[in-house]
Amino acid sequence: MINPKLRDPLNDQLCQAVLSLENMEECYQFFEDICTISEWKSMAQRLEVARMLQAGHTYDEIVEQTGASTATISRVKRCLNYGADGYKVVLQRLTDPKACSRSITK
Q1: Which GO terms label this protein's molecular function in UniProt (predicted)?
Q2: DSSP secondary structure string, 22-86?
C-alpha cells in the first residue's frame, strides 16, 4: 500500500520517469543527474542491506561487507518487516528474472 503522505503529482511524475527508462545506460544517466553521488550510493547500499538481511546475514556481516551503520540496517529491517513491501518486490525480481515483466538491458 502506498503511503498517502507520499502520493502527490510530483512523486507520481518521478515514478513515471523511472518507469520510462529503457536500459542501464539511461538509468545511470538519470540517477547521475537527479541524485548526488552520496544519495545514489546510499540507495544502493540500502538495497544491498535488504538483500543481505533477506539472505539471513548478521548485522556484523552486513556492517563489514557494506559499511552500513547499524541504524541503517535496523531501518531497512523495519521496512522489510513492516513496510510497503517495495524491497521484497524488487529483490524477488532481481533473483527471479521470470518474475520481472521487463528486464533492463545494458
Answers
A1: DNA-binding transcription factor activity; sequence-specific DNA binding
A2: -BHHHHHHHHHHHS-HHHHHHHHHHHHHHHHHHTT--HHHHHHHH---HHHHHHHHHHHHHS-SH
Domains and CATH numbers, the chain: 1-34 (no CATH), 36-106 (1.10.1270.10)
Other CB atoms within a 10 A radius of the CB of residue 53 amount to 20
H/E stretch holding 11: helix 9-20
Dmax (CA) for the chain in angstroms is 40
Q: And the C-alpha cell for 50?
A: 535488504
